[in-house]
Amino acid sequence: MKSLTKQQWTYLVLTAGATMGLVASFWQTLEKLTLLKNADTVLSCNLSSVFNCSNILNAPQSSVFGFPNSLAAVAFFVFMLSVGLLGLTGSVLNSRLRLTYQAISLFFVGFSFWYFWQSIFNIGVICIFCIFNFTGLLMINGAWFRLNYRDYPLSKRMMNKLDWAVAKGADIFFWCLVALVIVLEAIIKFA
User: Fold this and answer.
1) Phi and psi (nearest 5°) for 3?
2) Host domain of residue 16
């Protein structure tokens, strides 16, 4: 069996993140449909007073674009999964296309960060599906950074510094730091 290249390993991380997000988003969509059929039903994602997706799914923040956010997430994660599988099988993607995918992913991670803030501080609960979605988004964004950073319009000096930082794992540390901020938000609110 042929071993994976570094680029394929990065696409594997992207694919794993997309798969995790897709499963969570799809399940969240099913829970929203269940809630629409019967507003009094107890959802499987209602684990406690802190982890309660019924409150989140009924909040206006869960339908920012006029339809459930989870539907946009399903479309996004399906798209990222297909791109991840293409890269995993050895396909070469144009750098402009990869940078566009990264920009879309950054939009979704920013939106997810806002949504987490809303759910924790305005709605007052945490959605378990959102945790998995956000984790998948961080994995996807980390992978896109690794795949694209050499295509950024930076000076040779800055690129050398960025190469050094990536070699030391500073990008992975950054994405873990973003996840830690979310965890600290929840601890501050619910501890």
Assistant:
1) -80, 155
2) 6-190
> Total structural domains in the chain?
1
| Angle at CA of residue 109, ends 187 and 25, nearest 5° | 85
Listed in sequence order, the residues at least 6 apart from 95 whose beta carbon sits closer than 8 Å to its beta carbon are 148, 151
- Is pLDDT of 1 > 70? no
Helix axis angle for 6-37 and 128-148, nearest 10°, is 150
Q: How many residues does the chain have?
A: 191
Q: Tell me which residue of 20, 46, 43 sits closest to 30, measured CA to CA.
A: 43
pLDDT in tens, 36-52: 898 888 888 888 888 88
CATH code for position 159:
1.20.1440.130
CA distances from 65 to 9, 72, 123 (A): 34, 9, 18
Model confidence, pTM: 0.91
In a domain, 1, yes or no: no
Q: DSSP class of residue 150?
A: G
